[in-house]
Amino acid sequence: MLVRTAPSAPPSAVFKTASVQGTDPMRQEAVEMSSEHSSALPAFQDLQFDDPKQAFQAKSTAQLLQSLAVFKACTIKPLVRNADTLLTVSRSIAAPVVDRAVKHTFFRHFCGGECVDSIQPTLQYLERHGIRPILNYAAEDDVNNEFGCEGCPVAAAERKLDRNLDIFMRSIRDSDNIRNRAFVAIKVTPLGPPKLLEKMSEVLVATGDPADRGHSSARLREALLPHLDAHETASLDNMLRRMDTLCDAVLAKTEA
Which stretches are annotated as coiled coil (predicted)? Predict the structure, then answer.
């Protein structure tokens, strides 16, 4: 797990896991949330994150020590490098104990919950203490994984991406539960095959046609089409459909 911080930015509470195939208790879809200070709540109207006493007054000493231990563990390179192997081996010996330990340390620190419903207590806790949450569903695949492989055909992989779309759509709907301005962070990576996204970036850079020019999905497709085979074109069309669906949902919500 990696945590990126900006020296000039106030510290934020970050909750993160990824969607992993399988039925193990600790390998479930989860919701990532980052948070920002909300000045609309009277009790924390003048909350200053450069004042440690005020910034962390909602946390107990035990909670702060646990967070420190989690961050320290994340700086141990051999532990991070071999995390998957260590978890697999330890779970083969005592899965319930390991699952409980991970859930109450790393998972609790970085994740808001295992599904949209389970994050509600976290949302309420953050709002009570002047923190406006940003819903962010964390579902990404390893770029080295093939899209559609033996035992996982392309159709099944596309259905998985459609499920990610459904969760993003629910996050947009559930943003009504957030007081003041509602935020939902949406990533492109859970909506398309990693290899396709990588190739798209390479093509846009090589052709001098960066994606930050405000392309519509139709113009983006037109720019990429000459460089994609039939399978990649079909995947691109599905990804753009998902992106357009999300954009339409956000526009409909803001115009309502």
Answer: none
Q: Determine the pLDDT at residue 26.
A: 40
Among 54-58, 78-82, 125-129, 183-187, top mean pLDDT goes to 78-82
- Identify which of 121-125, 136-140, 162-166 has the greatest average pLDDT: 162-166
Cα(82)–Cα(128) distance, integer angstroms: 38
Cβ atoms of 193 and 157 closer than 8 Å: yes
pTM of the model as a whole: 0.63
Q: Is the pLDDT at 39 greater than 70, yes or no?
A: no
Start-to-end C-alpha separation, the chain: 38
d(CA 95, CA 102) in angstroms, rounded, equals 10
Amino acid at 130: G
Measure Cα distances from 246 to 30, 49, 100, 118, 186 in Å.
Answer: 19, 33, 35, 23, 9
Instruction: Give residue for tokens 């596309």.
Output: 158
pLDDT of amino acid 212: 53
Per the listing, tokens 């994609």 go with 228
